[in-house]
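Researcher: Here's a chain I'd like modeled. Treat it as a single chain, no partners, no ligands.
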Amino acid sequence: MKADDPIARFTRWFREEVAAGTNHPEAMALATCGSDAMPSVRYILLKQADARGFSFYTDIRSPKGRQMAQNPRAAMVFYWPRKGRQVRIDGSVERMTADEADEYWVTRPIASRISGSVSHQSDRLKSRQELVARVAKLRRELRGKAPVRPNYWLGLRVVPNRIEFWVQAPFRLHHRELFVRRGGQWRKTLLQP
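Model: Modeled as a single isolated chain. Structure tokens:
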């Protein structure tokens, strides 16, 4: 690992949390903002992190999907309290290919694929029974087969231009390192707590 490679550091920290048995180390807060300039944040699950960026999958008709279409920038944060660590990421958003979405879709449990096929994420729901009935109807129609990925269920990738590593220390003397990408290279700066 290069000392100033923030993706490698993130990967190392993430693997340490996985090895320690941390519950949902892949959970991250994702902040988006549409054309109305109103920030919105929610927890989602990271599916991959590599040199290209931080990837997740969603119904692009959802509020976050629409916001990122209007304003293709996002911020993310991971917090792992076991070691008092936090990672903040800011960057641009790009859609992943349909092939990438198909490849991931088939790894999901069939029940998750069915619910992803019948739910219009974040839309109003008259009753829980309505959603359960749609799931049951699709199950009957499929007769044990797996559903095909809906065209609105895609992957998105946050391509980072800033990554901050924060480590908790006593008396608010936290250690903070900010990496900023300039021309394909990462530059590291220390920040005051």
